[in-house]
């Protein structure tokens, strides 16, 4: 355990605990909302106080423009963010890893040289954002389906688009391992394919799998955020059409973190906390995972790596 | 001959892929009764059919923005110019800066610089854009001085500086990380210690021994670099309200009469053309680098 790994683990675990158990200690629930209020100052003038309220003692993160507490929304939405990203990452790693392992072990190909340009490489040029956008845009706006079901559909799509990259990464690593001498020697004493995979390949790859898993979480959070910029929120989007020329208003149904960022994009200049606080929470969550991945890398590197001659 | 056939089949394959792929929002729709997912295959095929029918009489090149009908050919010119200039600048400058700084990062001992770069690299592109905009707003709040415009509010007064900065730094960050990674791997190889033993200078070893062995990796990763460049394009055209191709296509994809298959297909074809141009340019750039640094 090094410092950066510990710090990353503490950050992410704290945020998870806050998202799952925060509702028991938070000052406000998701259903309470602050009413429009009059206040009479010392001169006797009455001042109209209307939400959104900026962060204050009673609402530490402020409220949105309907008077709902932002902290309660973050706590409610965090469950979707955390469960969706982690389960998508698990699916990507398990399925993509299995496919990559088998492809790498069974294929006849040599480790690919860097200057080879297979046509599959060009698929990297299509941003995943567009693929997911195309699939989700038709079903994401004002849906009849429940938020859970829609979050599930988005997660499946997000998992599917990520599997090929994970598979090809694992395949490359497996091909390198497959040609090592210990694999050859266990083959020569009659070990079966399954034994070689289980006893030699998987133990050598488990560290890569772990790092890949954490990196995938970061990528998935990024994807959800990009989708939220285009108003596709995890769990569906409610669209309120305003009279022309006001643009329609997009609201996340689940208060998921990236959704809270996406729906507050117009708050860049006024009521900035509505954009800034969800963005901060989301960014800190990403950085937490990034620190875990850095920590793991340096922990494993110390064991195996070669050093620069310069 | 075989190569020509291969390229033709790839080209046709890509065209078909786009035609089918753009159908997805028409095919995949929630059922109006209970919101369960339904596949309307005929809907998609009929869109495709009417697109081909419309090619002859020009119907396929009309689209709606709200309720107004526009001609795609008339509108695309200015959008293409906007997107083209940002992509070309971002790609070429981003790659050059990325390559030079990547070499520097591989040999520097300043650890905080590396961790700063890692930090920037891990943040999604839209976070960087939002943070840049925030910075401008905060500076404006504190000093009353609007350094740059945070977005284009009208066509006469477009935001230039901020989009330009983000179109360069986001690809550059990826490039720096990539080059630095492969560079530091190349520096562990035996031929480097051999070159060092022969008494060659540090700078000479880095540029004439290590860098030529890094360039193939850069070349192989070019599609991924392009993917980041184009994904970034969608984000920053949207966040800065730049009237580029992606904004034209994706803000009008759903108009008054619902999903516009024609517009999306035409738009993606335009982006594909752009992709081909920029890809060729970057290959030429790398070719130039190779000519300079390979003896």
UniProtKB/TrEMBL annotation, chain A:
Taxonomic superkingdom: Bacteria
The ABC transmembrane type-1 domain, residue ranges: 82-293
Coiled-coil spans in chain: none
PROSITE patterns in the cross-refs: ABC_TM1
Main localisation: membrane
Gene Ontology cellular component annotations, sorted alphabetically: plasma membrane
Membrane association type: Multi-pass membrane protein
PANTHER family in alphabetical order: OLIGOPEPTIDE ABC TRANSPORTER, PERMEASE PROTEIN (PTHR43839:SF3), OPPC IN A BINDING PROTEIN-DEPENDENT TRANSPORT SYSTEM (PTHR43839)
Protein family membership: Belongs to the binding-protein-dependent transport system permease family.
Protein name: ABC transmembrane type-1 domain-containing protein
Source organism of the structure: Paenibacillus montanisoli
From TrEMBL, chain B:
Main location: membrane
Keyword entries, A-Z: Cell membrane, Membrane, Transmembrane, Transmembrane helix, Transport
Membrane-spanning intervals of the chain: 7-28, 83-107, 119-139, 159-176, 225-243, 263-286
Localization of this protein: Cell membrane
Membrane protein topology class: Multi-pass membrane protein
Pfam families assigned: BPD_transp_1 (PF00528)
Matches recorded under PANTHER family: INNER MEMBRANE ABC TRANSPORTER (PTHR30465), OLIGOPEPTIDE TRANSPORT SYSTEM PERMEASE PROTEIN APPB (PTHR30465:SF0)
Domain ABC transmembrane type-1: 80-282
Gene3D superfamilies registered for this protein in UniProt: MetI-like
Entry similarity comment: Belongs to the binding-protein-dependent transport system permease family.
InterPro entries: MetI-like (IPR000515), MetI-like_sf (IPR035906)
Biological processes annotated in GO: transmembrane transport
Assigned GO CC terms: plasma membrane
Tree of life domain: Bacteria
Protein name in the entry: ABC transmembrane type-1 domain-containing protein
Keyword Transmembrane helix in annotation: yes
């Amino acid at each position: 355990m090094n410092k950066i790994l510990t710090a990353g683990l503490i950050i992410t675990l704290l945020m998870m605990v806050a998202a799952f158990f925060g509702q028991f200690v938070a000052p406000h629930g998701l259903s309470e909302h602050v009413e429009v209020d009059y206040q009479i100052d010392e001169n006797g003038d009455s001042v109209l106080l209307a939400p959104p309220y900026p962060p204050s003692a009673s609402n530490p993160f402020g409220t949105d423009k309907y008077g709902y507490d932002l902290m309660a929304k973050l706590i409610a939405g965090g469950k979707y963010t955390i469960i969706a990203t982690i389960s998508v990452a698990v699916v990507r790693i398990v399925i993509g890893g299995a496919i990559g392992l088998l492809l790498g072990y069974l294929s006849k190909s040599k480790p690919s040289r860097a200057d080879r340009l297979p046509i599959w490489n060009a698929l990297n040029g299509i941003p995943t954002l567009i693929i997911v956008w195309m699939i989700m845009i038709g079903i994401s706006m004002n849906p009849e389906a429940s938020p859970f079901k829609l979050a599930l559909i988005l997660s499946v799509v997000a998992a599917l688009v990520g599997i090929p990259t994970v598979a090809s990464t694992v395949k490359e690593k497996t091909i390198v391992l497959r040609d090592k001498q210990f694999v050859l020697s266990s083959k020569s004493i009659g070990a079966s394919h399954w034994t070689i995979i289980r006893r030699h390949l998987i133990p050598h790859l488990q560290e890569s799998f772990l790092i890949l898993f954490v990196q995938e979480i970061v990528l998935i959070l990024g994807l959800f955020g990009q989708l939220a910029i285009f108003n596709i929120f995890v769990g569906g989007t409610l669209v309120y059409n305003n009279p022309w020329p006001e643009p329609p208003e997009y609201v996340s149904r689940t208060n998921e973190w990236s959704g809270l960022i996406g729906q507050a994009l117009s708050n860049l200049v006024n009521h900035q906390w509505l954009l800034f606080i969800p963005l901060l929470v989301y960014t800190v969550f990403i950085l937490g995972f990034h620190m875990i991945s850095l920590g793991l890398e340096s922990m494993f590197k110390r064991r195996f790596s070669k050093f620069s001659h310069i | 001959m075989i190569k020509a056939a291969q390229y033709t089949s790839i080209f046709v394959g890509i065209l078909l892929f786009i035609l089918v792929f753009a159908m997805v929002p028409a095919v995949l729709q929630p059922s109006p009764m209970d919101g369960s997912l339904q596949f309307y295959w005929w809907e998609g095929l009929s869109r495709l059919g009417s697109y081909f029918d419309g090619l002859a009489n020009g119907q396929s090149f009309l689209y709606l923005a709200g309720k107004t009908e526009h001609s795609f050919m008339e509108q695309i010119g200015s959008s293409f110019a906007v997107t083209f200039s940002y992509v070309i600048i971002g790609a070429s400058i981003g790659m050059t800066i990325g390559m030079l700084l990547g070499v520097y990062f591989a040999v520097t001992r300043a650890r905080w610089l590396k961790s700063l770069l890692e930090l920037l690299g891990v943040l999604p592109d839209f976070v960087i854009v939002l943070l840049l905009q925030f910075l401008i707003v905060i500076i404006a709040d504190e000093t009353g001085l609007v350094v740059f415009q945070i977005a284009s509010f009208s066509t006469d007064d477009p935001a230039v500086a901020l989009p330009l900065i983000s179109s360069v730094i986001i690809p550059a960050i990826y490039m720096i990380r990539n080059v630095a990674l492969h560079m530091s791997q190349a520096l562990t190889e035996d031929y480097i210690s051999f070159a060092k033993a022969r008494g060659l200078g540090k700078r000479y070893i880095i540029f004439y021994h290590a860098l030529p062995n890094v360039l193939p990796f850069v070349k192989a990763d070019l599609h991924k670099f392009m993917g980041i460049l184009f994904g970034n394009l969608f984000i920053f055209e949207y966040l800065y309200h730049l009237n580029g191709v992606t904004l034209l296509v994706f803000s009008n994809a759903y108009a008054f009469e619902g999903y516009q298959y024609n517009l999306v297909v035409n738009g993606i074809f335009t982006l594909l053309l752009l992709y081909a141009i920029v890809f060729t340019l970057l290959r030429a750039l790398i070719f130039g680098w190779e000519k300079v640094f390979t003896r």
